[in-house]
Amino acid sequence: MKTFSLLLIHLLFINSLFSEIKASYNNNVVGISWANPLHIDIDYFVIEKSKNGNKFNEIMKINGSENLNTSMAYYEIDNNPFNKKGYYRVKQVDINGEIYYSNIVLAHNMENIKPIFNLFSKSHNLKGLKNYKGKDILVVLQNSKQEEFIARVNIIEEGRKLITTFVNVRLPAGNYLITATSDDKVYGKNVDVNGSYTNAAYTLSTK
């Protein structure tokens, strides 16, 4: 299914002290790494996995560090990852019962992935999108460096091109490929981002 339901409300629950987590395929397993925040009494961490970035399932539980003043690096392996890609996040549960979530990262199995099409082809196949206006669409955008960003956008069709009129994250102006979206009509299309933003960017890890 082309359409992905990408829930961004999780960003409200991210602990600002959480280190950036990373997830990457290596020989058909996925390594997940992060570090514990300082000066917080953590009971345990839970690694969660999802096929679509929306519904997550717990895959393992890791005890927290007993030393509040030392940053500890964690590295765990998912031995049963999804075939092509998977979304990962880490849940932090403190001794006092407080729960925080990391940002969501996307791991691609590059050995099994095929590009939708060349980003530089600048596809103008906008059949059915004349006068298109999309509001509050959830998307994953890929730039020419194959970096991916999750965002909420407003998009319109203008001059046989799709352009953003609102982006909720900080993105450099340029042309992006829509690799996942809550609106199937614009899946696999190119969109011009004008550089507008209201918040800091959340980058998906693809390495």
Describe the structure.
A hairpin with a 6-residue loop joins strand 3 and strand 4 (57-63). This protein has two domains: 9-108, Sandwich (Immunoglobulin-like), CATH 2.60.40; 119-204, no CATH class. The chain has strands at 22-26, 29-35, 42-50, 57-63, 73-78, 85-94, 99-101, 105-108, 133-142, 148-158, 161-167, 174-181, 190-193, 203-204. The protein is built from no helices and 14 strands. It is elongated. Helix content is 0%, strand content 45%. The strands form three sheets. Strands 9, 10, 11, 12, 13 and 14 form a six-stranded antiparallel β-sheet that branches. It has 207 residues and is mostly beta strands.
Note poorly predicted spans: 1-16, 115-124, 197-207
End-to-end CA span: 24 Å
Helix content: under 10%
> How many structural domains?
2
Main sheet: strands, sense, barrel = 6 strands, antiparallel
The CATH architecture name of the largest domain reads: Sandwich
List the helices and strands in order: EEEEEEEEEEEEEE
Strand composition percent: 35-45%
What spatial form do the alpha-carbon principal axes imply?
elongated
CATH fold type of the largest domain = Immunoglobulin-like
Computed structural class: mainly beta
Q: What's the alpha carbon Rg, rounded to whole Å?
A: 18 Å
